[in-house]
Amino acid sequence: MDILEKLKKGEAKLSLVGLGYVGMPIAVEFAKRGIKVIGYDLNKDKIELYKKGIDPTKEAGDDVIKDTTVEFTSDPEKLKEASFHIVAVPTPVNSDHTPDLRPVEGAARILGQHIAKGSVIVFESTVYPGVTEDVCVPIIEKESGLKCGVDFKIGYSPERINPGDKVHRLSTIKKIVSGMDEETLETVAGVYSIVVDAGVHKAESIKVAEAAKVIENSQRDINIAFMNELSIIFGKMGIDTLSVLEAAGTKWNFLPFRPGLVGGHCIGVDPYYLTYKAEELGYHSQVILSGRRINDSMGKYVAENCVKNLIAIEKPVKNAKVAILGFTFKENCPDTRNSKVFDIVEELREYGIEPVIADPQADKEEAKRLYGVTLSDLSDVKDMDAVILAVAHSDFGSLTVKDMDGLFGKGTRLLLDIKGMMDRKEYEKAGYRYWRL
Ligand SMILES: NC(=O)c1ccc[n+]([C@@H]2O[C@H](COP(=O)([O-])OP(=O)(O)OC[C@H]3O[C@@H](n4cnc5c(N)ncnc54)[C@H](O)[C@@H]3O)[C@@H](O)[C@H]2O)c1
Question: How remote is the CA of residue 88 from the centroid of ligand 1, in Å?
Fold first, then answer.
């Protein structure tokens, strides 16, 4: 009997290595569909939270975590019990933008020390083409003394879930799967088909699957960079970018991207994986890195425009009272890692402004630990000269002009609505100085 049948009959276990925004929802979904799941993470504190029924990612929710049959553990010995392993550990970049493969290598090492003969290991972490076979496999072979293709098999299946998105979920997004040979591909496809109702796409090789994921995010990054560049150009021309995009968007093949900050650990990071590998092969990226440079400069650009607009409404810049609403890297998600909102904070500080930051969704402890910032409650935001609406959380979408008025002090109210959440005309009519990307 093969692994797929054994998993379905409850005679084999599946493990998740890395229980973050990606790994935890996968573990929970397999468990929900009757598969025996071991959820392993080396972060003991996180495991303790899961065991207590607390979901720090808010992806599944506390109730689901409380009810799940996933066996949460920080003991790698438990991995010996599983025969199908899915790795979903982080793939960040170093400060020089080169890939930091230490978590993937670490996961390969732990698996190498604990896999049983006959196992299948599937990597989900976003990487450049070649990491699974050329970086991870040698580590697993060395640690286990086993031979890939003979004693264990390998596959790759990139993750497309979008934290905070309650519509596009693991089960409803078509999933790319790949395997080192036909038999492994069929097993990997069969296992993921248990949880992915939208179906799987069988990629012709592991490297194709790795490449597909990294270009999905690079494409988004480049398109957003183009919008950001347009925003800078139209800003100089005194034309409202979103109005231009609304007009251009009436053409059937105009792509509906918007300007904005590009943070997080996917879109702003993955392109560097691709350009790093390209560079190693002697090709220096032109388009991808240009896009990265523009997107990475947008926090500074927003802060500069805050200062220019403060001057325009005759408010002293130094010690101006500025509030930033939203600190996470994206809307409706508690994750603050690699948030570009911090670039705004840093640039404002250069002008002698210490902003008040409020974010009802953000993980406050993480914000303190990673950035040293103390997040305030929205109710504490008062007497401001300017408000920067930085993240489109639904909490902010429901703010009325009157609510917004309550955040300001005397004089002209300056609103920088980065994502264009509010009705520009309504605010202008109410006497606001309104600015957006
Ligand atoms: N979050 C997203 O939106 C998203 C979407 C698609 C793909 N991805 C990719 O998926 C991967 C995981 O991302 P994430 O957002 O879930 O990361 P995350 O940081 O939320 O979670 C990763 C988990 O792995 C654990 N970990 C690290 N090294 C480990 C090891 N050696 N053994 C066991 N556990 C280990 C960490 O403690 C953490 O809990 C990354 O490659 C990311 O690029 C993320």
Answer: 5
Question: Pick from 276, 171, 259: which is nearest to 214 by CA?
Answer: 276
Instruction: Please give the model's pTM, rounded to 2 decimal places.
Output: 0.93
Residues 203-251 pLDDT 10s: 999 999 999 999 999 999 999 999 999 999 999 999 999 999 999 999 9
Higher pLDDT, 81 or 164: 81
Contact in structure between 358 and 323 (CB atoms under 8 Å): yes
With the C-alpha atoms ordered 302, 304, 306, 312, is the resulting torsion angle positive or negative? negative
Report the 10 Å Cβ neighbour count for 276.
Answer: 17
Pocket test for ligand 1, best of 16, 17, 19, 21 (most atoms within 8 A of CB): 21
CATH 3.40.50.720-classified regions of the chain? 3-204, 224-435
Give the residue, out of 89, 262, 329, with the most ligand 1 atoms within 8 A of its beta carbon, to mutate for a pocket test. 89
The per-residue pLDDT for 59 is 86
Query: Helix, strand or coil for residue 343?
Result: helix
- Report the pLDDT value the prediction gives residue 401, as an integer from 0 to 100: 97
What would the CATH number be for the domain defined by 224-435?
3.40.50.720
Question: Is residue 416 over pLDDT 80?
Answer: yes
Instruction: Give the model's confidence band at 1: pLDDT under 50 very low, under 70 low, under 90 confident, else very high.
Output: low
Q: What's the topology of domain 3-204?
A: Rossmann fold (3.40.50)
Q: How far is the CA of 124 from the centre of ligand 1 (A)?
A: 9
Q: Is 112 in the pocket of ligand 1 (CB under 6 A)?
A: no
421-425 own/partner pairs: CB under 8 Å, 24+ apart:
421/389, 421/392, 421/396, 421/397, 422/389, 424/240, 424/242
Nearest-CA residue for ligand 1 atom 10 is 125
Query: What band does 58 get if pLDDT is binned at 50, 70 and 90?
Result: confident
In 3D space, the residue among 325, 336, 324, 330 whose CA is nearest the CA of residue 267 turns out to be 330
Q: With a 6 A CB cut-off, is 163 part of the ligand 1 pocket?
A: yes
* Residues with catalytic function: 266
Q: How far is the CA of 253 from the centre of ligand 1 (A)?
A: 35
Q: Whose CA is nearest to atom 41 of ligand 1?
A: 125
Mean pLDDT of the chain: 96
